[in-house]
Amino acid sequence: MQAVPDEAFLLDVREHDEWRAGHAPTAVHIPLGELQARVEEVPGDVPVYVVCRVGGRSAHAAAWLNHLGRDAVNVGGGMQSWAFAGRPMVSETGQNPFVA
């Protein structure tokens, strides 16, 4: 998993149901399909770490943000690796979606 500094701007681009199931406590949620319309919510003056479930959608989002001039980093392994590493998560469903 890509190291994410504690003070980093963490952007979660997963869908609403994935977000509710479990996300990083400090993450900002903008689903990938809404990112273009909501890009002004993403800061342009700090590195942005982009996360999804395993890294595919966040790679696309990071590439697009970098194309716009943002400093975006894909979090490889996504929230799946985040959970397996034991990093803190908040769940609105009360269950960790990455644990069988």
Automatic annotation (TrEMBL):
<protein>
    <submittedName>
        <fullName>Sulfurtransferase</fullName>
    </submittedName>
</protein>
<dbReference type="InterPro" id="IPR036873">
    <property type="entry name" value="Rhodanese-like_dom_sf"/>
</dbReference>
<dbReference type="InterPro" id="IPR050229">
    <property type="entry name" value="GlpE_sulfurtransferase"/>
</dbReference>
<dbReference type="GO" id="GO:0016740">
    <property type="term" value="F:transferase activity"/>
</dbReference>
<keyword id="KW-0808">Transferase</keyword>
<feature type="domain" description="Rhodanese">
    <location>
        <begin position="4"/>
        <end position="91"/>
    </location>
</feature>
<dbReference type="InterPro" id="IPR001763">
    <property type="entry name" value="Rhodanese-like_dom"/>
</dbReference>
<dbReference type="Pfam" id="PF00581">
    <property type="entry name" value="Rhodanese"/>
</dbReference>
